[in-house]
Amino acid sequence: MRILAVIIAAFAALWSAAVHAQQPAPAAESVPPPPPPQIAQSYLYLEPFQARVEVLFDVTTVLGWLKIPADASGMITPQMQSNVRAQMAALASDWCHLRADEAEAQGQLTGVAFVKGEPGRTLPMEEGATVSARELMVGVMYEFAIPGSPAQLALRWTAFKEPVAALPLTIFFANSTETMELSPTLSVARWENKNRLPRPKPLAELPKIPKAHVYQIPLPMILWILFGLVVFIYMEVKDKRFPGGFLPFLASWLIGIGVTYSMTLNISDPFAAQAAPVKTADEGSRIVEPLLRNVYRAFDYRTESDIYDRLARSVDGELLRTLYLQTVQALTLDGAEGARVHVTDLSVTVDKVETTAEGFIAEGEWTALGTVGHWGHQHQRVNRYKAKLTVQPIESEWKITALEVLEERRL
Length: 411
Description:
The protein is an alpha+beta fold and 411 residues long. The chain has eight helices and 19 strands.
């Protein structure tokens, strides 16, 4: 009996296992993907004459502020990106304010952008691409005009909207950084300069050109005096009387001298030393290198008038406007509103020089090395150009009057 009971129990266990094997396994419960991490990070980039503020938020937070329903697939389409940029530009226009030396700095929101990656580790993003919300952030950018070397700056952030309870701030200046944090109870971050923000370098000196002395000759007055003397001598020799008498003649003659006294004719000294013709590559390099260096130093300034004033020290004629636009485009970081490369090093090589009647044409190449901060990390930009430059003495100063770029490469 005991053996029979064991056999029956074993058979029952096998039967139960077979029945359970034929039953479908219960479906696993679908677990929604975890929401993307909340992001709130800000950056303040300081340069002489300009402060740039960039603030990053995760896409989910921004969609909540704008009351835009998220796609069930978790993807952000180009149409959604366009809507977010437009609405966020209106919402965030007055979130950021800056005071420089206790005076309100003039500035504005310069753009809203979708940024791929993480703060400080952003990735290139293809224009018009549909991207997962987990990979994207929304950045707002502000630009302010500040003095060349302010003693103190105060950044004020006015928008602490749920769920953002604090806003870490990283300040970039020269080759250093400083960290602070903004919050509803401490919405102002103060930064002391203490001579840590260098001013733009002065313009490089150029070889001197002999300046011809200019003689100011009052030729109209001399001719009037001679005319009066000739008339007086003629009347005396011919023993004739002046119409109306001598006194009216004398009075009109003296008045004419007074009127023509300030009328001068400027004549340059024809025997003055002229600029020596530039014949060798070394001679051309001593002129071209500081000229090109000053072109890039002009863009250390930010307002158009300041740039033009300094650019005109090295460039003349129609080239002034053209070179301004070309250089702004070359120094502006792709897709980064307001982020302009600061050229820190320049290498110039002149290969050959062709002497002309009005100056010389230099052919050679130069390499411009620059850096720019954007979205929490530093970009390095290296551009190399091969070109022909026409250089002429303009008002006793060497200036570039024509530029033909033969080759441009980004290294």
